[in-house]
């Protein structure tokens, strides 16, 4: 793998802050010519360092008023149990992130719902009905002082 230098890091920082920045503005911000900047961005994309561009959505504007991180423990520690759980979470619209983790639980989920009642429905009717789920612990987001997810 080719090393990422300081200019690449500046490009990545600029694009992380504003992925819609024009190449001309990006080049100016990192101190390169437009053609040199474009070549570097294309190379970062080719190498998979930049894997995509996305819009950052405002949950409140979409009617999401409830966010929770949910720790889930499984009763079986098999690949089949994990695959079954991951398939169920892939189909659950409320689950925005699903991470397999180490420790006393198997998964941490980021769940976004309209309100507490909608979350309760997800908790009891979707998560609670999965046969291999042993434990569910919810951590309700009260406020986010820092959130750099893109």
Can you describe what's shown?
The chain is an alpha+beta fold. It has two domains: 6-46, Winged helix-like DNA-binding domain superfamily/Winged helix DNA-binding domain (Arc Repressor Mutant, subunit A); 60-140, 2-Layer Sandwich (Alpha-Beta Plaits), CATH 3.30.70. Helices cover 37% and strands 20% of the residues. It is built from five helices and four strands. It has a four-stranded antiparallel beta sheet. α1 packs across α2 and α2 (23-30) packs across α3 (34-46). It is elongated, with a radius of gyration of 20 Å.
Give the termini separation: 24 Å
How many β-strands, per DSSP?
Answer: 4
The tally of domains stands at 2
Radius of gyration: 20 Å
Mean pLDDT: 95
CATH homologous superfamily identity of the largest domain: Lrp/AsnC effector binding domain/regulation of amino acid metabolism (RAM) domain
Order of adjacent strands in the largest pleated sheet: 2-3-1-4
Quick structural summary:
The chain is of the alpha+beta class. It contains five helices and four strands.
Describe the protein's topology.
Blueprint: H1 6-17, H2 23-30, H3 34-46, E1 66-74, H4 79-90, E2 95-100, E3 107-113, H5 116-126, E4 133-140
Antiparallel strand pairs: 1-3, 1-4, 2-3
Based on the model shown, name its key terms.
150 residues, alpha+beta, Arc Repressor Mutant, subunit A, Alpha-Beta Plaits, 2 domains, 37% helix
């Amino acid at each position: 793998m080719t090393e990422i230098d300081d200019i690449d890091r500046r490009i990545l920082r600029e694009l992380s802050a504003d992925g819609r920045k024009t190449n001309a503005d990006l080049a100016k911000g990192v101190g390169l010519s437009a053609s040199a900047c474009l070549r570097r961005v294309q190379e970062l994309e080719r190498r998979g360092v930049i894997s995509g561009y996305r819009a950052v959505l405002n949950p409140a504007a979409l009617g999401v008023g409830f966010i929770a991180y949910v720790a889930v423990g499984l009763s079986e520690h098999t690949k089949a149990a994990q695959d079954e759980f991951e398939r169920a979470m892939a189909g659950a619209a409320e689950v925005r992130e699903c991470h397999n983790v180490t420790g006393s639980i198997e998964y941490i989920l980021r769940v976004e719902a309209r309100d507490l009642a909608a979350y309760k429905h997800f908790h009891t009717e979707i998560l609670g009905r999965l046969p291999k789920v042993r434990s569910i612990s919810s951590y309700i987001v009260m406020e986010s002082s820092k959130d750099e997810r893109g």
